[in-house]
Amino acid sequence: MSERDAFVEKAKAQLDAWNAEIDKLSARMEKADADARLEYNRQIQQMREQRDEAEQRLKEMQSASEDAWTDMKAGFEGAWANLQAAFDRAMSRYQ
Q1: Per-residue pLDDT reduced to its tens digit, 85-94
Q2: CB 11 within 8 A of CB 54
Q3: pTM score, two decimals?
Q4: DSSP letters along 39-91, please?
Q5: CA 30, CA 33: separation in Å to the nearest integer?
Q6: What is the pLDDT of residues 20-69, one digit of tens each?
Q7: How far apart are CA 36 and CA 76, in angstroms?
Q8: Is the pLDDT of residue 95 over 70?
Q9: Who contacts 41 (Cβ-Cβ below 8 Å, separation ≥6)?
Q10: How far apart are CA 61 and CA 90, in angstroms?
Q11: Where are the beta strands (DSSP E) in the chain?
C-alpha cells in the first residue's frame, strides 16, 4: 500500500468514527428536554459541517496528481488537526 493510500484509509477511518459519534449525539438529543435539544442540534450541525469539510478536502486530495498530493498533504494535515480539535471540543461537552 502506498503512503497516499494509507493516508486516505486512515482519514476514511477517522471520518467513520466521527459519523459514529454524531449518531451517538443524535441519539442523546432524542432523550433530552426541549432546551437541551436546541443545543444538541446546534452542535450536531457544526459537527456535520466539519465532517463535510474534511470529506471534501479528502476528495480533493484523492483526485490530485501525485505531485500535487505531496504538496497538499502538509496543508491537509494542518487543517485535519484543526478539524479534529474542534470535533473533540464539541464531543467533550456531551460526554
Answers
A1: 877 887 787 6
A2: yes
A3: 0.76
A4: HHHHHHHHHHHHHHHHHHHHHHHHHS-HHHHHHHHHHHHHHHHHHHHHHHHHH
A5: 8
A6: 988 988 888 888 888 888 888 888 888 888 888 888 888 888 888 887 87
A7: 34
A8: no
A9: 29
A10: 26
A11: none
Rounded to whole angstroms, how far apart are CA atoms 57 and 79? Answer: 9
Residue 14 has pLDDT above 70, yes or no: yes
Which three cell numbers, joined as nine digits, stand for 62?
484523492
Q: How far apart (Å, rounded) are the C-alpha atoms in residues 29 and 10? A: 29
pLDDT, residue 51, reads: 85
Q: What angle do CA 9, 44, 74 make, to 5 degrees?
A: 35
- Unique residue bearing C-alpha cell 476514511: 12
The distance between the two most distant Cα atoms of the chain, rounded to a whole number of Å, is 52
